[in-house]
Amino acid sequence: xxxxxxxxxxxxxxxxxxxxxxxxxxxxxxxxxxxxxxxxxxxxxxxxxxxxxxxxxxxxxxxxxxxxxxxxxxxxxxxxxxxxxxxxxxxxxxxxxxxxxxxxxxxxxxxxxxxxxxxxxxxxxxxxxxxxxxxxxxxxxxxxxxxxxxxxxxxxxxxxxxxxxxxxxxxxxxxxxxxxxxxxxxxxxxxxxxxxxxxxxxxxxxxxxxxxxxxxxxxxxxxxxxxxxxxxxxxxxxxxxxxxxxxxxxxxxxxxxxxxxxxxxxxxxxxxxxxxxxxxxxxxxxxxxxxxxxxxxxxxxxxxxxxxxxxxxxxxxxxxxxxxxxxxxxxxxxxxxxxxxxxxxxxxxxxxxxxxxxxxxxxxxxxxxxxxxxxxxxxxxxxxxxxxxxxxxxxxxxxxxxxxxxxxxxxxxxxxxxxxxxxxxxxxxxxxxxxxxxxxxxxxxxxxxxxxx
Length: 453
What we know:
The chain is α+β, with helices and mostly antiparallel strands.
C-alpha cells in the first residue's frame, strides 16, 4: 500500500513538473531574488568593482597610505624653502642692585644675568631661516620614491580587490548556471518517472524501472537543493562587498567573453604595467637614496638667519632718547662634522645591507612575473580551447539522451541506459559551466597581470 502511494505521489510530482507548476517555490525565490521585486538592482561587473572599492577596508588603507605619501613629498619640498615666523617675547630678569648707564633708555637697573640686556626686554621680530644641505635635497627624492612605492602598493591592493570580486562574481554566476542545470535534470528525472510509471501501467516495463527512476528523481531534487544553497551563499559572499546589508537582493549581468590576445602582446603589457615589479624598482631606488642620505652626514650644513624687528627695553619704534629700536640682524652658520664615533659609517653599512635585500626582491619579482605570464597564458589558452570541446560534449550528450529515451520507449534499451544518459548530460553541462568560469578567471588573471582591468 505504501509503495503504491509513493508511486502515486511521484506521478503527481512528475505531472506537476511537466505542467510547469512550481515544486519548490520558496527555493526558486531564494535562487532568483529578482523575481520577488521589480526594484532589485542589476549589477554589472564594472559596477561591482566600483562598489567594492568604496567599502573594502584594506583598499581604503592603501588609498590613505598613497595620499599621505604624496603629502610627505610636498612637505619635503617645502623644507627646501625658507621658513618665516613672527617672533614675540617678553623677558624679565632679576636686577643685581647696580645701575646700568649703557642702555638706550638711560640709567636703569642692571640685570643679574649677563646674557640678558635689561631687566625688562621686549622682542618682536620677523625671522627668516633657511638651511642648505644635501640631506634636505635627498629627502625630496626619498619622499618621491616612497610615494612611488605607496602608489604601487595601492595598485597591488586594487588588483587584489579586483581578483576577489571577480572570483565572487563568477562564483555567483556559475552557481546560478548550475541551478539551471540541476533544475533541468530534476525536470528530466520527473519526466522519466512519469514515463516509467506509464510503461509499468501498460505492462511494458518492470516495477524496478519505476523504482530506479524514483531514486534518480530523489537524487536530482537533493542536488537542486544543494545548488540553490550554493547560490545563496555566493550571493551573500559577494553582497558583503556591494551593499550595506549583505542580505540585499540583486541580480548579475556577466560580461561577454573576450578573445585571448597573443602571448607577445601580453608580455609587452605586463612589463610596463606590473605593480609588483614597479614596487620592487621603487624600493630599490629608495634604498639607493637612503645610502646618499647616510653619506650626507659627512658634509656640512649651511644655516642662514635674518631677523627684523624690535629687541629693546620698551615696545616702541623709538626709545626715550630718540634712538630707533627697529633694526635687523643676520647670521650664517656652517657646521663641519668632525667625529661621531663611526655612527655615520655604520648607518651607511645599514643602508647598503637594505639595498642588497631590495635587489634580491627585485630579482624575485622579475622571475615571478615571467613565471606567472607563462602559467596564466597557458591556463587561459587551454581553457579557451576546451570550451568548444565542452559545448560539443553537451550537444552530443543531449542528443544521446533523446535517442536513448526513444529507444527505451520502444523497448530497445534498459532503464540503466537512460539513467546513464541523464547523468552524462548533467555532468557535461556542469563541466561546461565550470569551463566557462575557468576561462573567464584565467583571462581576468592575465588582465590583472598586465593592468588592463
